Amino acid sequence: MATVFQYTTIQGDAFDSISFDLFTTEKYMGEIITANRSYADVVDFDAGVVLTIPVVNVTPNLSAVAWGTLTATS
């Protein structure tokens, strides 16, 4: 099982929208920010930024990321 995921942003992505798209809730936004501290001050992402998505106690909604790229890594 993967220990983290990588998500490649599209123009206009934000931490809350990434959390919602992947987990159907914004409540994991803090975990995503913590895993990507160097981007903590970014409000809206440019396309092509690779973020680390931590494993949380839900399964990512992979069908929601057709416009971005989500790949499992260990």
What is the count of helical runs? 2
Shape: globular
Low-confidence stretches: none
How much of the polypeptide forms β-strand, as a percent range?
Answer: 15-25%
Structural class determined from secondary elements = alpha+beta
β-strand number: 3
How many structurally independent domains? 1
The proportion of residues forming helix, as a percent range, comes to 10-25%
Major β-sheet profile: 3 strands, antiparallel
Spatial strand arrangement across the major sheet: 2-1-3
**Rounded mean pLDDT score:** 85
Kindly provide the radius of gyration, computed on alpha-carbon positions and rounded to a whole number of angstroms: 11 Å
Termini separation (Å)?
A: 8 Å
Topology summary:
Layout: E1 4-8, H1 15-23, H2 29-35, E2 50-54, E3 69-73
Antiparallel strand pairs: 1-2, 1-3
Helix pairs in contact: 1-2
